[in-house]
Design a protein that fits this description.
The complex is a heterodimer of chains A (334) and B (513). Helices cover 72% and strands 1% of the residues of chain A. By secondary structure, chain A is mainly α. Chain A has a two-stranded antiparallel sheet. Chain B has 18 helices and 20 strands. In chain B, strand 7, helix 6 and strand 8 form a beta-alpha-beta unit. The longest helix of chain B is centred in the last third of the chain and has 17 residues. Chain B starts with 12 loop residues before the first strand and ends with a helix. The chains are: A mainly alpha (334), B alpha/beta (513).
Chain lengths: 334, 513
């Protein structure tokens, strides 16, 4: 009331701010439901400004793109859950298509698929060993792998694309099953397997434990390095599966194919609620993040905007999603 | 509202806290603490672990926002401070864990945030070194510490002085020292005392937190006792004595806290450690642990207690010697030790004990998944009953299996850690500082449970720096000194004096050698 000379009560922005538990919980929920809610919002906006989005042919394109990015992002999410990151998925993805196309000529499709998956597993193993056993920061290890695999692919193909995509890949990618493309079914099956594993098996618990607190996981008798390496192997194998679906869909092998998949898989996972700090996130969120991101990217095309807006979109989505997570951390630290 | 004017404060009071409140998720960390600090005094702050000392400090430095009360400092009254405000008002802290950059020189560390500027807005490195020298001179350390030396090349005691100089460089008038003597070897104590007295004589107000009552009588002018988040009393040191302080801190007889001694004879040898050496830290350790006994592992900081505890579960590099588990010599990893039934309950719960972001159910079942599996699947309904039983059994509060473990108090977190390992039915449990930072009630419950488990034939090793706890719980006590076994005491022989003699006398021999 009466101001006394010595009373100074200053409040800086946020400095005296103490969130109620309900508010923290609200932000938590907002983080988890941001992607599904945004999907609905974007759908409504699309229906108003770009009805062409709902054209069956466009929807099929969206479905296949969702499937390809979805498969890759499942792998990325597994790695992120383990407090790691994989910057090499785009190189692995492009490599898969090249291997199958190049080796298919002489031998059977099965042996070239096995070869592709084996090489992917080796790359994942190398990533995992570098991160787990040599303690190389995951970003650096996998970024190095990105450059190495990309370079090795160019050396192998001498910079020229050749060969045609085998029919088998066309089949698993674009052949309609009922009214959905086969690729979407592949994505759903992979999702089902991974969701089951994360929820109902030891390995799933271990993934969350290692990502949540590697120290505590080690004390609890979990082979932390093994879990981390397994996640990296799974991520690379899923990336190559994504590459096979993608080449089946576009029908040829482009040397620049898949370059966006590092950024997009990370953005989709983070939008879906997976954190960079590990141990938080799930595959439903990831699926929603993938669908949201692909819808946004597709809308840029449907609306006839310059394609560069896609990049702006990718960046904005990643930054906004990370900011929301940062806000949550800030609240928890008060 | 009130007629508060500056005259209500005596002129030499430089910091005054009134009725400070702070709760964490329903737990009262501070419920009405009042405290004042005068110019040119050393004011000791004492209290048991969990009495609220560190919460109070963090309130003063602006790390925590209090729920109520007021802070009067620098002629203003505040409901809360921000870390920046606290610094500007001349509040400096020397934490137990130093905040120094080891690869940078002393002078650069001292003036990290406020480097002296020269022409063109560049840091004047020469002036910086000169000013650092002057600060060190004020602290009487200019002969030992070169401003250009790298911090990592200094001893712990010297690093502490750099920490103090750093606080002074930011014009700290109020200096908070959080258990400064806990990290020091005894030969560096005198120098620390000298520094503190020099600062007091310059007119600084010093809040000195300590567990060692004897140094309070050596150093402090006044002492404030905290208990359960409240101020018990503030007294002139000259008008109190050790017994008085202990009575105020504890508020009851200590013996009530510990369960009755073991009623069973130790059984078979579970662990047999022979000539164990661990690089640079532990040398030639021999001991055995039998079923049903509690073996205390005592020693000063840095004596190798934790290293030995970690080595037993394969988390430290063994150079030579062997450990026989149940008669079989083996080298374990954390995973294989857990499978074999040898588990470590670590000192740092947040880093190694729990996954704070996950539920109590997740944490408790984590090492026990194989026994809960049905067709290789883990179903929530199969987890539920054992988890509820474990939570009830240990008295975890609140008893909610789905609550994040991170939201529990320290004592309840420790109970969750204990619950998960009891469910694993281990044969040997190694506790490292089992009750650090835990409130008195939870402590007593953990001791009771520890005794119960040992009566069921589990071998227990308890590494601890808390002597009353070592004395209250152990059937026999191994005393370490600088990585070597200094002696073994039976329950009958053991006393604080006997332990400290073994832990410290060897020390003097070592120093003269």
């Amino acid at each position: 009331m009466t101001s006394t000379a010595i009373t100074k009560k200053r409040f800086n922005l946020f400095s005296g701010f103490r969130p109620s538990p309900r508010f923290v919980r609200g932000v938590d929920l907002a983080g988890q439901w941001a992607a599904p809610i945004m999907i609905l919002v974007v759908m409504v906006i699309a229906a108003i400004v770009a009805p062409a989005f709902f054209n069956p042919i466009n929807l099929k394109t969206v479905a296949i793109q969702v499937a390809v990015l979805g498969v890759v992002t499942i792998g990325q999410t597994l790695v992120l859950l383990n407090r790691s990151i994989d910057m090499s998925v785009s190189a692995v993805l492009a490599l898969g298509a090249v291997i199958v196309v190049q080796t298919e000529g002489g031998s059977s499709i099965v042996s070239s698929l096995v070869l592709a998956i084996a090489i992917a597993a080796l790359i994942g193993l190398a990533n995992g060993l570098l991160v787990a056993k040599r303690h190389v920061p995951p970003f650096v290890a996998t970024f190095g792998m990105l450059v190495f695999v990309g370079g090795a692919r160019l050396a192998y193909t001498k910079g020229q694309a050749s060969g045609t995509v085998p029919d088998f890949l066309r089949t698993i990618s674009i052949k309609p099953i009922g009214f959905i493309p086969a690729a979407l079914l592949v994505w759903l099956i992979v999702n089902a397997i991974v969701i089951f594993t994360l929820r109902y098996t030891r390995l799933g618990r271990w993934v969350y434990a290692v990502g949540g607190n590697p120290g505590a996981a080690r004390y609890a008798g979990i082979n932390v390095d093994w879990v981390l390496i397994s996640a990296h192997i799974a991520c690379s194998v899923l990336a190559i599966l994504g590459g096979l679906l993608l080449s089946g869909y576009i029908g040829y092998v482009d040397l620049r194919m898949g370059a966006d998949y590092n950024m997009n898989s990370i953005a989709a996972a983070v939008v879906g609620g997976t954190t960079f700090t590990g141990g938080r996130g799930n595959m439903f969120g990831t699926a929603a993040g993938v669908i949201l991101l692909i819808m946004l990217l597709n809308l840029v095309v449907v609306l006839g905007l310059p394609i560069h807006w896609q990049y702006a979109m990718q960046g904005a989505v990643l930054v906004l999603a990370t900011a929301l997570q940062g806000f949550r951390q800030f609240l928890l630290s008060r | 509202m009130t007629e508060s004017t500056s005259t209500t404060h005596s002129t030499d009071t430089i910091l005054s806290l009134k009725d400070i409140q702070k709760t964490f998720g329903g737990i009262h960390a501070l419920s009405g603490v009042s405290f004042d600090l005068r110019e040119g005094e050393v004011h000791a702050l004492v209290g048991e672990n969990g009495a609220g000392k560190s919460t109070l400090i963090k309130t003063i430095t602006g790390a925590y926002v209090p729920d109520g009360g007021s802070i009067t400092v620098g002629g203003g009254e505040y409901e809360m401070l921000t870390p920046n405000q606290a610094r500007q008002l001349g509040i400096g802290v020397v934490y137990q864990e130093f905040n120094l950059l080891p690869d940078m020189p002393v002078a650069e560390n001292i003036f990290l945030t406020t480097p002296p500027m020269g022409r063109w807005g560049l840091i004047d490195t020469k002036k910086r070194a000169q000013q650092a020298y002057k600060l060190l001179e004020r602290l009487g350390a200019h002969k030992h510490i070169n401003p250009y030396a790298l911090v990592k090349d200094l001893t712990v005691g010297e690093q502490q002085i750099v920490e103090i100089a750093k606080a002074l460089a930011m014009d700290a008038h109020i200096l908070i020292m959080d258990e400064p003597s806990a990290v020091l070897p005894s030969r560096d104590m005198d120098r620390l005392y000298k520094v503190v007295r020099a600062l007091r004589d310059e007119g600084h107000g010093i809040i000195y937190i300590s567990h060692r009552l004897n140094e309070i009588f050596e150093l402090a002018d006044r002492v404030t006792v905290l208990k359960d988040g409240q101020t018990v009393a503030t007294k002139l040191v000259a008008k109190t004595d050790e017994d008085d302080l202990v009575r105020m801190m504890v508020g009851r007889e200590l013996t009530d806290m510990y369960p009755p001694v073991s009623t069973i004879e130790p059984g078979e040898v579970l662990l047999d450690v022979r000539d164990l050496c661990i690089e640079n830290t532990v040398f030639d350790i021999n001991f055995q642990v039998r079923a049903g006994e509690v073996v205390g592992l005592a020693g000063l900081g840095g004596s190798g207690r934790t290293t030995i505890a970690r080595a037993l579960v394969g988390l430290a590099d063994i150079i030579s010697g062997e450990i026989a588990y149940f008669g079989q010599p083996a080298r374990m990893t954390a995973a294989s030790a857990a499978r074999a039934g040898v588990v470590l309950i670590p000192e740092d719960r947040k880093a190694f004990g729990l996954i704070l972001d996950q539920s109590n159910r997740f944490n408790i079942t984590l090492p026990n998944l194989p026994q809960l599996e049905r067709w290789k699947m883990i179903l929530k309904r199969d987890e539920w009953d054992p988890v509820i039983r474990a939570i009830d059994d240990l008295g975890v509060r609140p008893p909610n299996p789905e609550l994040d473990s991170g939201s529990l108090s320290g004592g309840n977190q420790q109970k969750v850690v204990l619950a998960k390992w009891i469910m694993a039915r281990p044969k040997v449990i190694i506790f490292d500082e089992p009750t650090r930072g835990i409130d008195v009630g939870a402590k007593s419950e953990i001791y009771t449970r520890m005794r119960e488990i040992s009566q069921q034939g589990v071998g227990i090793i308890m590494a601890s720096s808390d002597l009353p706890e070592v004395l209250g719980m152990s059937d026999r006590i191994l005393v370490l000194h600088e990585g070597r076994m200094a002696g073994e005491l039976s329950r009958e022989e053991a006393s604080e004096e006997a332990i400290m003699k073994l832990a410290a006398v060897a020390h003097e021999n070592g120093a003269s050698a």
